Structure formats: structure tokens, C-alpha cells
Amino acid sequence: MIKKFSTKKIGSALLVSGALAASCFAPLAQADWKGWNVHPAGYPVTVAMESFIKEAEKATDGRVSGRVYNGAILGSQEDAIQMMQVGGIDFAEFNLGPIGASVPEVNVVSLPFIFKDVEHMHRVMDGPVGDELSKAMEKKGIISLAWYDSGSRSFYDSRKPIKTPEDMKGMKFRVMNNELYVGMVEALGGNATPMAYSEVYQSLKTGVVDGAENNWPSYDSSNHFEVAKYYSLTQHLILPETLSVSAKAWAKLSPEDQKAVRKAAQDSAEFQRKLWAEKVTESREKLIKAGIQITEIEDKSAFQDAMAPVYAKAVKDNPTLAPLIEKIRNTK
Ligand code: BDP
């Protein structure tokens, strides 16, 4: 009697031998990278990250590929920074604010009003200070490949316009995870509580906090404007962001592939900066139509002067910040 093989069995036998053949003949292991992202689809960071991983795949003939997980579904930014340090995620786009909690040198960019404007921040980050911060991050397992933009952050709240620091008295603001920001809000007379980004909408809505602070595109995409309509243009922070790869994933690449992936990251940063500029205008126009109340603050000196103790404490806690502050101030 001829023994009949079920097609299912033949199929799985073929699959197994196929997989064996692939693993024997593949020239190099293929890296399938997991990418962390806090933002939603369509946000400039998201679009640029997707373009990065696609270009990296092309440039390495598929030896690197990956997927971007949006909306912080892999965990909060605070957790993701730690996950990257142990190789639990392979690439991510982080704001340098929360990175300062793990890499103290990076706190220099979180000193309020340290940059004159976005162009100054670009000159600093594209020069020796940017390189120094990359090296400090590398020592902590985070390989920064390119700097992305996130504009300037201003306060918004559900109660009233902020024209002077006195207006912040008695109000509670959410800040990103970094003690320095708690000190910043307290020096201005308010109260602050660090909180994950995903929790802010509900906290504003229910009055757990009165306000938060962010740039135009995030104020828009997070829908915080719906529950905190007073946007007061303090522009106290201009924070760079980083497209990074975990040191563990990076070490598995050949030098040629590292070069190709770095190039894909830098091209994506150029793309992101263009998308960013467009998004700022789009969000501002949309939110004005939606009825938010903007407060322009021509003279920011009261806010700036109040930052002296914040700088003093930051330098006392971490003396390596002093020369970095100098270098940023000397960057024309
Ligand atoms: C956005 C940043 C994002 C932060 C968020 C926040 O791009 O990385 O998570 O602010 O405030 O502007 O948490």
C-alpha cells in the first residue's frame, strides 16, 4: 500500500527544510528592529522614522529592517529609555529632556532659555557640544544617530492666560520626567508633577493638573488644546530630539552597515526638520480656528531671571554642566 502523506505534513517539512537552508546560506543574520515612538501616525517624527527604517533596509540590502510602534504602546518614554539601554528595544526617537534623567550631561539642553532660538540650537547640536552629548549617551548604551526638531515649548492651562510668573501661582503643571523641570516650574511660582505623556489629557480634563507645556504640534496632536485652551508663549525650552539605536543592536552591524544606517538617519532628520516647520504652521492655524487663547509674551525677562536658582542647582548637582553651558553661550 502506498502510504499517503498529508499535504499538511509535507508543507511543514518543506517549511522546516526551507528555514534550515535559509539559516545556513544567509550571509549575515538579519536584524528585525523594534522601534519605539510616542507620537501618532502622520506626526513629523513618525513619518521621518518610517522613512528612516525603510531607507536603512534598502541601504543594507535587507540586513536591517524593522517596524515603528506608535503612541508609546511599547511603554512610556521613561521606560523606553531604560529598555533601550538593555537592548529591549532597538531604535527610538526620544526627547532629550527625559534622557537627561539617565545621562546627566544631556541636562544642559534642559536649562530653560539656554538656546537663543531654534537656529542656535541647530548650530550647537551640529557642532562639538552635540558630539559630546552623543558620546555621553553612547556610554549609557544609546547610540544617537541624528537630531530631530521639536520646536519650542510653552505653557498651556485650563484656567487663565499667563503673562508673568505670578500668574502661575497656585497652578499645577505636568512636566516630563526630569527633576530639573520640577525646579523650573517651582522657580516660576507654580507646582509641578512629572507624568507620562499618555496620562496628561485625562489629568487636564479632570483637573488633576491645571496645565502642561509643549510645542504647537504636540499641543495639537495630543488634543490637550481641547481641555487647556490658554496657550501662553513663554518658549522656555527648545529641546532637541534624537533618533537613536540601542548599543546592543548597533554592535551587531558591520561597519559598512553602520555607515549606511547612520546616513539613513541623517537623511531622515533633514526630512523631519522640513515636515516639522510645515506642521508648526498647520497646527497653529488649526488651533487658532478651534478657539484657543494665545498670549504673546514680548518681554520674557521675568521668566528668564527666575531661572538663576535652577541653573545654580543644576551645576551644583552636576559640575560637568558648567563648561557645556559656557560652550553653548559661546556658540554664535
Ligand atoms: C513632545 C515630545 C515627546 C514627549 C512629549 C511630552 O516630542 O517626545 O514625550 O512632548 O511632553 O513634544 O511628554
What attributes characterize this protein structure?
332 residues; alpha/beta; D-Maltodextrin-Binding Protein, domain 2; 4-stranded mixed β-sheet; 15 helices; globular; binds beta-D-glucopyranuronic acid; Tripartite ATP-independent transporter DctP family solute receptor; TRAP_DctP; carbohydrate binding; receptor; DctP_fam
Describe this structure in words.
- It is a single chain.
- The chain is an alpha/beta fold and 332 residues long.
- Helices cover 48% and strands 18% of the residues.
- The chain has 15 helices and eleven strands.
- It has a five-stranded mixed beta sheet, sandwiched between helices. The chain has a four-stranded mixed beta sheet with strand order 8-5-9-11. It has a two-stranded parallel sheet with strand order 6-7.
- Helix 2 packs antiparallel against helix 12.
- It starts with 6 loop residues before the first helix and ends with a helix.
- The protein binds beta-D-glucopyranuronic acid (BDP).
- The site of beta-D-glucopyranuronic acid has 10 residues, from loops.
- Beta-D-glucopyranuronic acid (BDP) binds next to loops.
The number of distinct helices, counting runs of at least 4 residues, comes to 15
**β-strand amount:** 15-25%
Q: Which homologous superfamily in CATH is the superfamily of the largest domain?
A: Bacterial extracellular solute-binding protein, family 7
What would CATH call the architecture of the largest domain?
3-Layer(aba) Sandwich
User: What does the average pLDDT come to?
Assistant: 93
**Strand order, largest beta sheet:** 2-1-3-10-4
Quaternary form:
single chain
Bound compounds: beta-D-glucopyranuronic acid
How many angstroms separate the termini? 88 Å
Element string (H = helix, E = strand): HEHEHEHHHEEEHEHEHHEEHHEHHH
Number of E-type strands: 11
Overall morphology: globular
